[in-house]
Design a protein that fits this description.
It contains 4 helices and 5 strands. With about 180 residues, the chain is α+β, with helices and mostly antiparallel strands. The radius of gyration is 25 Å and the shape is flat.
């Protein structure tokens, strides 16, 4: 049997960071969670031959996210995503050299960023006027606790795998 690797991604997810930009007038906060996935033909050799020469370690991906966030100024999530994608596609000479030898390349850097919004706390200034605070922030999280859902029809459970220990009957319509 011939096995062929059709798609491959490697990288790191759930890289959390908080970027604080301080100016004399105010502090700005951006809290992000990043996921970086790299695709490219050379990394297939890690599966076929056990050769990790073209696989960037997940710790290096995490460190790159943190270092690039510290080194670069960016105003939005999208700007930082572009910085990350360009970095991973162009700035790894060892991988690029390895890739050239294999006549392949890291073809795609998929970057997903999620932002946790922070809002400035509104407090009275020295004159009693309400103004956004220069370096105090608030975030609100919400959700639903104890939600229960009842479906009273059109919820069949039939044609499932049965073995010698199966006792569950097929049910064409049931409560869920």
């Amino acid at each position: 049997m011939v096995v062929k690797l059709l798609e491959h991604e490697h990288g790191k997810g759930r890289v959390r960071m908080l970027k604080v930009t301080r100016t004399p007038e105010k502090h700005s906060v951006m809290q992000l969670e990043a996921q970086v996935l790299l695709e490219g033909a050379p990394a297939a050799s890690a599966y076929y031959d056990g050769d990790n020469g073209s696989v960037l370690p997940t710790d290096s991906v995490k460190n790159s996210v943190w270092i690039l966030a510290k080194k670069h100024e960016f105003a939005s999530l999208e700007d930082f995503g572009v910085i990350l994608a360009k970095h991973f596609v162009t700035k790894h000479p060892d991988i690029v050299r390895y890739v050239i030898l294999l006549e392949g390349f890291i073809s795609v850097a998929k970057v997903k960023l999620f932002e946790t919004p922070w809002e400035r706390m509104v407090t009275p200034d020295s004159n009693g006027k309400m103004r956004p605070h220069h370096h105090a922030f608030v975030t609100v999280q919400g959700g639903v606790d104890g939600l229960r859902v009842l479906k009273t029809t059109q919820s069949a459970f039939v044609k499932f795998f049965k073995d010698e220990y199966t006792t569950l009957p097929e049910v064409p319509d049931r409560l869920v």
